[in-house]
Amino acid sequence: xxxxxxxxxxQGDKVRAKTPPGINQAIDIETAAIVRFYAGKTxxxxxxxxxxxxxxxxxxxxxxxxxxxxxxxxxxxxxxxxKKWLILPTIASTFLLQYAIQGWCPPISLLRRFxxxxxxxxxxxxxxxxxxxxxFDEILSKEHWHxxxxxHxxxxxHxxxxxxxxxxxGHEHGV
Length: 175
What we know:
- By secondary structure, the protein is an all-alpha fold.
- It has helices at residues 14-18, 21-38, 43-55, 59-80, 87-102, 106-113, 119-132, 137-174.
- It folds into 2 domains: 14-135, no CATH class; 136-175.
- It contains 8 helices and no strands.
- The chain is elongated, with a radius of gyration of 28 Å.
C-alpha cells in the first residue's frame, strides 16, 4: 500500500490541528525528503536514522520540560529574590494545563516554526523507514500465506464435497 496522503495516519493529532497548514506542510515536506533520501541507503544507515528518531523529543516532551524548567526557575527566584518571579510558574502551569486539555498553548506555535514534531509525525517517519528496511515483509508474506492457505483449504473442501457427492451417487447406482 502506498500512502500519498498522510492525513489519515496523523488524524487526531491536536497539535497538527491547531498548527497553521503552512507549518505542517513544511514539516511534512522535510519528512518526505528524509524518507526519499534513505530510500537509497543501506539497512545499517536506515537503522542508525531510526535510532535517532527513537531519541528525538516530540513537542509534548519539550513543552513539559520547558514548563518544568520555567516553573523551577520562577520558584527559586521567587523564594530568593522577589515574589514577583512567582508569576513564571503560574504562567508555565497555565500553559501546561492548556496544552494538556486543548493540545495547544502559545509556545507551540514558536516550537512548530522551529520544526519540532509531534509523536505521530515522528512515528510516521519511523514506520516509513522501517518499510524501506523491509521490516514488514515477513508480516505481509505471512498474511499472503494465510490467505493462500485459506483459499487452498476452501478449494480442497469444495473438491472433497464434489467428489464425495459423486462417489455416494455412484455407489447407489453400482449396487
